[in-house]
Amino acid sequence: MKKSELKKVLKPLIKECIKECIFEDGVLSGIITEVVSGLETRRVVTEGVTIQAKTDDREAKEKQRQAEQEYEKQRQERIKRLNESAKVGGVNVFEGIKKDAVIPESSTQGPLTGVRSGDSGVDISGILNIANGKWKQLI
């Protein structure tokens, strides 16, 4: 008997035996349990007291404050550049927008976070006219 013929006969038998073993004997649940327990991060809690010098704490706070100031400075610069670039051909594209229309930053997250409830969104009613009614042909 050739190797390829033996492989043709044995492969389906071995495959069926493995399936039976995994599904009938509960081996699959054991495999899943082992994988899940391996994925969990285990934290080792140790008791100890760390004492830091107060100067380290002050230095850390000072560095944090400086970093926040630098970030705010960069943010203001970006806003300034955006406002300057928004004037297309000398026309301010944000003209007429009320200051209260600006969306406040929020700590919650979601697809509509920061969108005012009264915001009507973008009018897409003319989108069907773009292809002159030939959307079915384009698809």
Describe the structure.
With 139 residues, this protein is mainly alpha-helical. The protein has a domain at 49-87. 51% of the residues lie in helices and 3% in strands. The protein has helices at 3-24, 27-39, 54-85, 135-138, and strands at 87-88, 91-92. Strands 1-2 form a two-stranded antiparallel sheet. β1 (87-88) and β2 (91-92) form a beta hairpin. It starts with a helix and ends with a helix. The relative contact order is 0.03. The mean pLDDT is 76.
Question: In whole angstroms, how far apart are the ends?
Answer: 56 Å
* Strand order of the biggest β-sheet: 1-2
Q: Biggest β-sheet, characterized?
A: 2 strands, antiparallel
Given helix and strand content, the structural type is mainly alpha
What is the topology?
Blueprint: H1 3-24, H2 27-39, H3 54-85, E1 87-88, E2 91-92, H4 135-138
Task: Give a brief rundown of this model.
The chain has 139 residues and is mainly α. The chain is built from 4 helices and 2 strands. Strand 1 (87-88) and strand 2 (91-92) form a beta hairpin.
List keywords for this structure.
single chain, mainly alpha, two-stranded antiparallel sheet, 4 helices
